[in-house]
Amino acid sequence: MKARVHVMLKAGVLDPQGEAIRHALGAMGFDGVEGVRQGKVIELDLADGASEADVREMCEKLLANTVIESYTVDMG
Amino acid sequence: MKARVHVMLKAGVLDPQGEAIRHALGAMGFDGVEGVRQGKVIELDLADGASEADVREMCEKLLANTVIESYTVDMG
């Protein structure tokens, strides 16, 4: 089974990569880009029987820095 | 309006970050993690009227290296 985890910087945490992308898009002539946030996506290929709780534990312990990042888990 | 872009390494392209995560999860006692791929997610806050075609052009020109990466665009 598959699980997909999104890890994003929390609102209010400065995102220099996102800002760099926004600036570059503007310089390339893409108007109307009002904000950009960049995060990570982690796709896990799990043995059958793994639960969302297991994946959340992975997030808490390794995949996300919960001081500055939030995460969401999509199973299946 | 919002758009979300996922950028992943193409199948067959070595993903050292994903391998490092897989190895670390195993060392932490999480059994049954058979594979991990890590990619980027980019959330764009766009002015009204932006189209998926605009976002795909951003991907082709800046957000993804289409030699080794594939991307998907979700609008809304």
UniProtKB/TrEMBL annotation, chains A, B:
Reactions accelerated catalytically: N(2)-formyl-N(1)-(5-phospho-beta-D-ribosyl)glycinamide + L-glutamine + ATP + H2O = 2-formamido-N(1)-(5-O-phospho-beta-D-ribosyl)acetamidine + L-glutamate + ADP + phosphate + H(+)
Annotated keywords: ATP-binding, Cytoplasm, Ligase, Nucleotide-binding, Purine biosynthesis
MF GO annotations: ATP binding; phosphoribosylformylglycinamidine synthase activity
Biological pathway: Purine metabolism; IMP biosynthesis via de novo pathway; 5-amino-1-(5-phospho-D-ribosyl)imidazole from N(2)-formyl-N(1)-(5-phospho-D-ribosyl)glycinamide: step 1/2
Assigned EC number: 6.3.5.3
Matching InterPro entries: PurS, PurS-like_sf
Function: Part of the phosphoribosylformylglycinamidine synthase complex involved in the purines biosynthetic pathway. Catalyzes the ATP-dependent conversion of formylglycinamide ribonucleotide (FGAR) and glutamine to yield formylglycinamidine ribonucleotide (FGAM) and glutamate. The FGAM synthase complex is composed of three subunits. PurQ produces an ammonia molecule by converting glutamine to glutamate. PurL transfers the ammonia molecule to FGAR to form FGAM in an ATP-dependent manner.
Subunit structure: Part of the FGAM synthase complex composed of 1 PurL, 1 PurQ and 2 PurS subunits.
Name of the protein described by the UniProt record: Phosphoribosylformylglycinamidine synthase subunit PurS
Organism from which the protein derives: Sedimentitalea arenosa
